[in-house]
Amino acid sequence: REQFCAASPKPVDISPFFIVHAQCCIRYVAGWHPHGVIPVTAAWCMMSEAWRNHPQLKRVNLALASSTINHLVPHMRDMVQWTGGIEVCTIVCQLLASQDIELDPSYLCLGEQGKYRASTGAQDLDLIVPGGQSESIESSSTERDITLVARHKGFIRIAIQAGATLLPIFCFGETKLLDNINMKSLQRRSKKLLGFPFPFVPYGMYNIINFVHLLPVHVESNLIHQKIGLWNFLPIPRSEEVYVVVGTPIVVEQCSDPTEHMVEDAHERYFGEIRRIFEQHKVAAGYKDSRLLFI
């Protein structure tokens, strides 16, 4: 069985760099934590110098699964799919079909099953962000502690049904890249009612005020604030160093109808590994005073 293990005490000219413990011959479902406002690094990592120059990682075909809303909104849909993203229900169908388990018609939301990518090859890695939009509401670049939404167990159940090995991944620095307008109470209520948090105005490195000096004539900043309002935010990620750690794979026994005890056991082992790699690497990543909170 082929294994790869790469480690570096400090990134030199590549960001992120990877500490990897994985077996390429096994079907994996990787979970990315934390979500951040938008999981920028999860979408970008396969196009990074670190990934493309790594002797083993460059041969891995990563498929990032995201929520349905990202594949319905024009322009957003094009950007997500251009980077290789697929709708999260596609992952469910691929996994269940690989074990010949009867599919619930509600999973088939992207068309006929024949249109789905055949992702059962040894070099494929299905990547999901379990925290979802609930976790994006909790994300803040100014808070010292990192909050993960750990109550979601659907991906654990699907992995058991398919016999897929869970691969926990933690990205230090993801929450530093973007922020959203802080209206958590309203965003939580809208998430329950609409299925997505509102208002959702991600912002990062730049806003319109930074471009005032580029205008051909002098424009008062107050005037721009009055005319633009909330639209002075641009979703351009900040330039921050991120530190990505891939944990020990969580092997589960395949079962087409897992019990609650089986799901709970795998869930506990998975998030226990997330906490372990966080505590082990937080000093090297520059987060020695941070805590990992589960809600």
How far do the termini sit from each other? Answer: 37 Å
Give the biggest beta sheet: 7 strands, mixed
Q: Please count the beta strands (DSSP E, at least 2 residues each).
A: 11
Number of continuous helical runs: 10
Beta-strand level of the residues, as a percent range?
A: 5-15%
The arrangement of helices and strands along the chain is EEEEHHEHEHEHEHEHHHEHE
Percent of residues in helical segments?
A: 25-40%
Quote the average pLDDT. Answer: 75
Classification by helices and strands: alpha/beta
The coarse silhouette is globular
Uncertain runs with pLDDT below 50, 5 residues or more? 1-25, 103-123, 208-231
Radius of gyration: 20 Å
With strands numbered from the N-terminus, the spatial order across the biggest sheet is: 2-10-9-4-7-5-6
Which helices and strands, and how do they pair?
Blueprint: E1 3-4, E2 18-19, E3 22-23, E4 28-33, H1 40-44, H2 49-53, E5 61-66, H3 76-82, E6 86-87, H4 88-98, E7 124-128, H5 132-138, E8 146-148, H6 154-162, E9 165-172, H7 174-177, H8 184-194, H9 221-228, E10 243-246, H10 260-281, E11 292-294
Parallel strand pairs: 2-10, 4-7, 4-9, 5-6, 5-7, 8-11
Antiparallel strand pairs: 1-3, 9-10
Helix pairs in contact: 4-6, 5-8
Keyphrases for this structure?
alpha/beta, seven-stranded mixed β-sheet, two-stranded antiparallel ribbon, 10 helices, 11 strands, 15% strand, disordered N terminus
